[in-house]
Design a protein that fits this description.
With about 270 residues, the chain is α/β, with parallel strands linked by helices. The chain has one domain: Rossmann fold, CATH 3.40.50.300. About 30% of the residues lie in helices and about 25% in strands.
Length: about 270
């Protein structure tokens, strides 16, 4: 039995999906997908474009529902009908979808505040307490981006927007971070800064579910690695067992060579 399965004994799984069949429009993305993720385990799901990664995130966040079937379940921390607001405050989600759809005219500080309501931008009817404002400021300081508070979201670089959205999800002090291709579109400095922030959050006890097609952004702290191909899990084990040249060559249908250093992985053409 894999160690994360043992670890989960006595603890409710963070995520439990059984027999989920999911369509997006007319596309069948998952057929009978089953996946259990324990609490306190850092997991990365790696798969090529179109393999279903973002769809999985949307299923977890209850933006998309599987086809109703007798034996299918999607449970988060043991609950199949979690209140969406509770769910979204327990999970800090940052995705490029959110980045692109976020309100251009929102100010940086408002962007962070909007995390309390899980909204895009802030609205006249939303009141924020002094405590919430202080918390938003504290997170901006923590991430070293307090200077972005007075800038318009739409005027910021991809990296600055991404960090603001990370701050936005951190105001709720979520235990679990759910990041979808967090460094895509960032330059080297932006990527390294983002990875450093991610690692300091992990050191502070948060757990990470990372969804990516990019080996470079998998931090050494990731324990378990799942390979997703065309909506199917084709490998699932400890990171060092799964990340082999053979598995990656099969996954991407391209010859892949691996470079491993200091717990980081990099793919080069085989
Ligand atoms: N809104 C949509 N309507 C129809 N099909 C979609 C939609 N979004 C994604 N798909 C399809 O679902 C599959 C999985 O997509 P997605 O979950 O976005 O993959 P990934 O995040 O791994 O790149 C792809 O075949 C994609 O074309
Ligand atoms: Mg995606």
């Amino acid at each position: 039995m894999a160690y994360w399965t043992r670890m989960e004994l006595g603890l409710t799984p963070l995520i439990q999906i059984e027999g989920a069949t999911v369509f997006r429009g007319a596309t069948l993305v998952f057929e009978n997908l089953s996946l259990t993720i324990a609490q306190r385990c850092n997991v990365a799901i790696l798969g090529p474009n179109g393999s279903g990664k973002t769809t999985l995130l949307k299923v977890l966040m209850r933006e998309i529902y599987p086809v109703a079937k007798t034996h299918s379940v999607v449970r988060i921390l043991g609950e199949s009908r979690t209140n969406i607001w509770n769910l979204r405050s327990q999970f800090g989600v940052v995705s490029s979808d959110l980045q692109y759809s976020y309100a251009e005219q929102a100010m940086g500080f408002e962007t962070v505040l909007s995390g309390f309501h899980g909204s895009v931008g802030v609205w006249g009817h939303q009141d924020f307490t002094q405590k919430e404002r202080e918390q938003a400021k504290a997170v901006l300081m923590q991430l070293g981006i307090h200077k972005l508070a007075d800038r318009e979201y739409g005027s910021l670089s991809t990296g600055q927007q991404r960090r603001l959205l990370l701050a936005r999800c951190l105001v709720n002090n979520p235990q679990h971070l759910l990041l979808d291709e967090p460094t895509s579109g960032l330059d080297l400095a932006g990527t390294f800064e983002y990875l450093a922030t991610m690692r300091s959050l992990l050191k502070a006890g948060r757990t990470l579910l990372l969804i990516t097609h990019n080996l470079n952004e998998i931090p050494p702290e990731i324990d378990r690695l799942i390979l997703l191909k065309e909506g199917r899990i084709v490998a699932d084990d400890t990171k060092s067992v799964v990340l082999t040249e053979k598995n990656l060559t099969d996954l991407y249908e391209q010859p892949v060579k691996l470079v491993v250093k200091d717990g980081w992985y990099q793919a080069i053409p085989g």
